[in-house]
Design a protein that fits this description.
The complex is a heterotrimer of chains A (about 240), B (about 280) and C (about 270).
Chain A: H1 4-17, H2 20-53, H3 59-69, H4 74-85, H5 100-136, H6 141-151, H7 153-169, H8 172-178, H9 188-197, H10 201-231
Chain B: H1 2-21, E1 33-38, H2 40-44, H3 47-59, E2 62-67, H4 70-78, E3 84-87, H5 90-98, E4 102-117, H6 131-141, E5 145-147, H7 153-164, E6 177-179, H8 184-194, E7 197-201, H9 202-207, E8 215-218, E9 225-233, H10 243-254, H11 256-264, E10 266-267, E11 270-271, E12 274-275
Parallel strand pairs in B: 1-2, 1-3, 5-6, 5-7
Antiparallel strand pairs in B: 3-9, 4-7, 4-8, 4-9, 4-12, 10-11
Chain C: H1 30-33, E1 39-48, E2 51-60, E3 66-70, H2 77-85, E4 92-97, E5 100-101, H3 104-107, E6 110-113, H4 124-134, H5 139-152, H6 168-181, E7 186-190, H7 198-213, E8 217-221, H8 225-231, E9 234-239, E10 242-248, H9 249-254, H10 259-265
Parallel strand pairs in C: 3-8, 3-9, 6-7, 7-8
Antiparallel strand pairs in C: 1-2, 1-4, 4-5, 9-10
Helix pairs in contact in C: 4-5, 4-6, 5-6, 6-7
The chains are: A mainly alpha (about 240), B alpha/beta (about 280), C alpha/beta (about 270).
Chain lengths: ~240, ~280, ~270
């Protein structure tokens, strides 16, 4: 079944019938990727803001490393997390391998640098505008960083979306550390990989269409939020 | 105070993300669980999807399967990641046990390998039962051949066959000999895409849905015998191994009832696995 | 010979720095000099890329009242303001306020209002609250001060609106309210009314005058000669980075003594 029309039909059928397995897989995908995004924002946004407001020796290197980490293949991250969480690895005693938690850790490592690097770019523009006024008022760097995050919040939504997009679409890391275990760690992307390897390309494509629809929905929601903010001249 | 506002600022964006993080997860399997590192063919053929719900219903134990190539499964087993193995590379399995990584190994079931190829059959091997002769013809015609190239059980079986035929296919690497470095399914997809012959286990082939115009060319040679084995990861080496649950599942697989379940699994009216515990 | 290479003691050809005494304001009394609004500048220079952008041998401003700073575009007015506020470091020279060297301590008693108001992407009230919070005021004190300042600039009805939805004049009034909220001893304005409508200009001038009358030293850069006439107690005229003259407003507008200021008031461009 290599017919695109048939794949769309199957995708629609899967959604319309509310297939339990599909719902479970979609929900796990969202849960894992949103959790990773939450952690990445908690790490990446302050880090990005800190890099903007705090000039220090070697900042250029840190920024270069962050930018380079944006291009790290998910498989490499997956491998690093596998080696750490494996029973034979340093954190094997946690027993986290092949759990959703391991997938969240891997995706966090994958997208936290993206969130940090993009947040830095977004907030740098804002800081150029605020810098003199902040220094005039004697605003501390910590407070300035916090203000940048608050005031840049709608631009940062776009940053978060970029991170989410990468997390929810990657397969290399989660298949290694999650193991694609049915009803436990199977997510959209690993299910697509499995269906592909079964030669069921129609099903794989249908799942791909559903994944894309979800990503589209999330982006539209965030875009609506941002448009609303821009109407209020906040952005 | 400013720390508070820093946290608040971060959270204002993170909350948007968090609203998703609290979504209910899958009905994460409750109760006892056992983890199997497995070859891919048993998963791709749908055997687990058929068999494991039956086992769960009878015993309440959830069996989680990580399907990787046999080579990867053995490596993961050496790292103590999992409780037991279902693989198909007997000599490697015996070495695994001898080296102390595994215990309690048993033959579980068998099927056979087949060589599949395009309808055009460029090497003219259709209907042959002598695998060595067929391989020689493929080399002579420099017909495309896709290899797993991933140290899996099927890959090891393929390499054994080349060796028996006195051929070193690596000399054709990148030419007529294409190593995909991928699982059986991906390699079959690649074969169909390229019009290349490949060696596959029969169960994966029968349940494979993207066959194109491909069909079985070579089968029935005793050297194409494909033995699956089951064993526990050594609980003495790996304290995390749930030996009791793993033994329970292994005993079930090897029992008359377990064998009957395996034998009952059919795709397109064909039996995929034949139990043969000793 | 390029300007920057001239010895600093030598008078420039076009602009005798040894201006007649009438071109200078009388030096402040010792008591005045100790007040926080009393700016004193000695041998101040700012160089960038081999060019001397600001070059002020000596300047002493009275501790109170409104000093209007005038000069053509590129004369170095904005740089001068940032130098005395301590936002940029001079290449060399000495700046003090009430005999306290310019630095974070003096900056904390001052507020700067920019030509284009830099407002946070928050509500009107939150903009004022932000600086008060940074100053460590309690929540109750902040609320009270915020209401007071917004009332003073006539924005109390807009407290909850997004600051960036305000009109240009309202935005500048908010910037002014925020600046005055920290009760500065010195208020610096960098062309704060440029590109505003007349009503807004008037409103801002009224607020600035009130602040000056309440004892805040005001230093105000402007291009608007009428505005300078309305507000100035004294005028400092900058030309090519130098103080061309600094005199009481009445004398300055009667007849400036420097060629550059004369040309400026007559609407001629002097290069």
């Amino acid at each position: 079944m290599q017919d695109f029309g048939a794949a769309f039909g199957l995708a629609f059928h899967l959604i319309a019938t509310g297939n339990d397995n599909l719902v479970e897989i979609v929900l796990l995908s969202l849960k894992v990727s949103f959790s990773a995004l939450t952690l990445s924002c908690l790490i990446g946004l302050p880090l990005g803001a800190f890099l903007v407001v705090r000039p220090f020796w070697g900042r250029g290197v840190v920024v270069a490393v962050l930018n380079a980490m944006m291009g790290l293949p998910p498989v490499v991250i997956g491998l690093l997390v596998y080696l750490s969480l494996s029973r034979a690895g340093p954190m094997g005693w946690l027993g986290l391998l092949y759990t959703p938690t391991a997938m969240i850790i891997a995706q966090t490592l994958l997208i936290a640098p993206i969130v940090a690097a993009l947040a830095r770019q977004v907030l740098e523009g804002l800081y150029t505008e605020y810098d003199e006024q902040f220094r005039s008022f004697g605003i501390s760097r910590l407070r300035a960083a916090a203000a940048l995050i608050v005031d840049g919040r709608y631009g940062l939504v776009t940053v978060a979306l970029a991170g989410f997009g990468r997390a929810v679409a990657e397969v290399g890391a989660v298949i290694i550390v999650g193991g694609n275990i049915d009803h436990l760690t199977r997510v959209m992307t690993t299910a697509i990989a499995l269906e592909t390897s079964k030669g069921d390309l129609g099903m794989a494509l249908a799942l791909g269409i559903i994944l894309m629809s979800i990503a589209l929905g999330v982006n539209l929601a965030a875009g609506g939020l941002r448009a609303m903010a821009e109407r209020q001249a906040y952005a | 105070m400013s720390v508070k506002s820093a946290v608040l600022g971060t959270v204002s964006v993170a909350t948007i993300a968090f609203s998703g993080a609290v979504l209910p997860g899958p009905a994460r399997a409750e109760g006892p669980q056992v983890l199997v590192q497995s070859t891919t063919s048993t998963q791709n053929s749908g055997l687990y999807d058929y068999m494991l719900p039956i086992y769960k219903k009878e015993t309440g134990v959830t069996v989680n399967v990580v399907a990787v190539g046999t080579g990867q499964a053995l490596k993961n087993g050496m790292n103590c990641d999992g409780d037991m193995l279902v693989v198909h590379a007997k000599s490697a399995e015996l070495k695994f046990v001898k080296d102390g990584y595994g215990v309690d190994r048993h033959d579980l079931m068998y099927n056979d390998f087949v060589i599949v190829g395009p309808a055009s059959d460029p090497a003219g091997i259709k209907g042959m039962a002598d695998v060595e002769a067929a391989l020689k013809k493929i080399v002579a015609k420099k017909a495309l051949f896709a290899s797993r190239g991933d140290d899996s059980g099927t890959n090891r079986a393929e390499m054994r066959l080349w060796k028996a035929a006195g051929i070193d296919p690596k000399t054709g690497s990148g030419g007529w000999y294409r190593e995909t470095g991928s699982g059986m399914g991906a390699t079959l997809n690649a074969s169909v895409g390229m019009g290349a012959y490949t060696l596959t286990d029969r169960s994966t082939w029968i349940s494979f849905k993207n066959k194109g115009d491909f069909g079985i060319d070579v089968q029935g040679d005793p050297r194409l015998f494909n033995q699956y084995g089951v064993m526990l990861i050594n609980p003495k080496r790996c304290p995390s191994v749930k030996a009791k649950l793993a033994t329970q599942f292994e005993d079930w697989l090897l029992s008359k009832h377990g064998q009957a379940v395996i034998a009952a699994y059919h795709v397109d009216g064909q039996q995929l696995f034949f139990p043969n515990p000793k | 010979m390029p300007e920057s290479l001239r010895p600093r003691s030598a008078p420039p050809a076009a602009e005798p720095s040894a201006a007649p005494p009438a071109a200078r304001l009388p030096e402040p009394s010792p008591r005045d000099r100790a007040r926080p609004g009393a700016l004193r500048v000695e041998g101040l220079a700012l160089d960038a890329q081999g060019r001397r952008l600001v070059d002020i041998d000596h300047l002493a401003l009275p501790a109170g009242g409104v000093t209007m700073v005038m000069g053509q575009n590129g004369a170095g007015k904005s740089l001068f303001l940032r130098l005395i506020h301590g936002l940029i470091a001079p290449s060399h020279g000495w700046i003090s306020w009430g005999e306290v060297p310019c630095g974070p301590a003096t900056r904390a008693t001052q507020a700067l209002v920019f030509q284009k108001p830099v407002l946070l992407r928050r509500s009107v009230a939150a903009n004022v609250d932000f600086v008060l919070k940074a100053r460590g005021l309690s929540r109750a004190a902040r609320r009270e001060r915020c209401a007071e300042m917004l009332a003073r600039v006539g924005l109390e009805a807009h407290a909850r609106q997004p600051a960036r939805l305000l009109s240009g004049g309202e935005q500048q009034r908010l910037a002014l309210a925020r600046a005055l909220a920290i009760r500065p001893q010195v208020l610096l304005l960098d062309e704060a009314t440029a590109s505003l409508d007349p009503a807004s200009v008037l409103a801002i001038e009224r607020i600035v005058t009130e602040a000056a009358e309440a004892g805040t030293k005001v230093i105000f850069i402007t291009h608007d000669i009428g505005q300078a006439r309305r507000l100035a107690d004294d005028v400092a005229f900058l030309h090519r980075g130098r103080i061309a003259e600094h005199r009481p407003a009445a004398q300055f507008f009667l007849g400036p003594q420097s060629e550059s200021a004369l040309a400026y008031l007559e609407g001629r461009i002097l290069l």
